[in-house]
Amino acid sequence: MHCPFCRFADSRVVDSRTAEDGSSIRRRRQCPNCSKRFSTVETASLAVVKRSGASEPFSRSKIASGVRKACQGRPVSEDDIALLAHRVEEAVRAQGSAEVDAHQVGLATLPFLRELDEVAYLRFASVYQAFDSLADFEVAIATLRSERDDAFATGGTGATTGV
Asked: What angle do CA 56, 58, 64 make, to 5 degrees?
């Protein structure tokens, strides 16, 4: 780490603290050359590889935007969408890879969206699971009903909305 004051090529860490929501570390540093102090914020980078092969930084706002479209007209709050985007980011980062395919991000969104709203889940799934016909929707709906019935039979609560 270069000193921003004298450009010396080294620095000493004086203090480290977790910043924001735990996804970054704030370090207080001191230059051994000029003795001035400065702060750095370190985060683990995560890149998303698009279909075209281009790579771009991971963006929670892009997840929120896609989920917002799927939830249009549904009783889902902005806070719910923001929390879902955060949970998706945590799940993708937990995979431990510095690069992830954009399609994988979409697939990682599905289980969280399913918990939130089944209709929005079906809308989103129709894109990321490449539904080609009504039969694909019928299979997805039958699966949702079956799993919801199983959850009720075993004492679970099932999903929050019906299909």
From this structure: 125
Crossing angle of the two packed helices 60-70 and 102-116, in degrees rounded to 10: 50
Helices (H), 53-154: 60-70, 78-94, 102-116, 118-128, 134-153
Secondary structure (DSSP) of 107-119 = HHHHHHHHHH-HH
Query: What's the chain's length in residues?
Result: 163
Task: Please give the Cα distance from 126 to 54 (Å, whole number).
Answer: 24
**pLDDT per position as a tens digit, 103-150:** 899 999 999 999 999 999 999 989 888 888 899 999 999 988 888 877
Q: Are strands 12-19 and 24-30 parallel, antiparallel or unpaired?
A: antiparallel
Q: pLDDT tens digits, residue range 2-52? A: 999 999 999 999 999 987 666 688 999 999 999 999 999 888 788 999 989
The Cα 71–Cα 113 span in angstroms is 9
Say if residue 53's pLDDT is above 60.
Answer: yes
Report residue 81 CA to chain centroid gap. 11
> 31 near 11, Cβ under 8 Å?
yes
